[in-house]
Backbone:
């Protein structure tokens, strides 16, 4: 099966705190459809693999120190895409911002 590519049109995030951990949860939407839930955590080692849910969205986990990079991409670069490949269980968040506007290539985050 080929990769599935969604253009991120909106997002929301929340900060969660509990007695066990602090987590940031980022919800990524494509045309009002939830396509990805990304959790940013400190203490998971190794990180859990991406998981496809019956509702159709993908759950992914990043280390907390990547949060500012991802938020910067969502705020400053357009378009941003979420790409899921079921065969390899690979999720990517990537940008197509023109390389003429920046000196280094846009970041791509692989799980």
Residues:
């Amino acid at each position: 099966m080929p990769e599935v590519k969604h253009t991120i049109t909106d997002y929301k995030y929340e900060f969660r705190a509990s007695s066990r951990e602090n987590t940031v949860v980022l919800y990524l939407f494509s045309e009002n459809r939830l396509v990805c839930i990304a959790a940013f955590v400190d203490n998971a080692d190794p990180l859990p693999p991406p998981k496809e849910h019956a509702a159709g969205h993908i759950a992914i986990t990043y280390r907390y120190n990547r949060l500012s990079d991802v938020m910067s991409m969502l705020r400053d670069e357009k378009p941003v895409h979420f790409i899921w490949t079921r065969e390899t269980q690979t999720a990517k968040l990537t940008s197509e911002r023109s390389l003429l506007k920046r000196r280094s290539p846009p970041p791509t985050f692989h799980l």
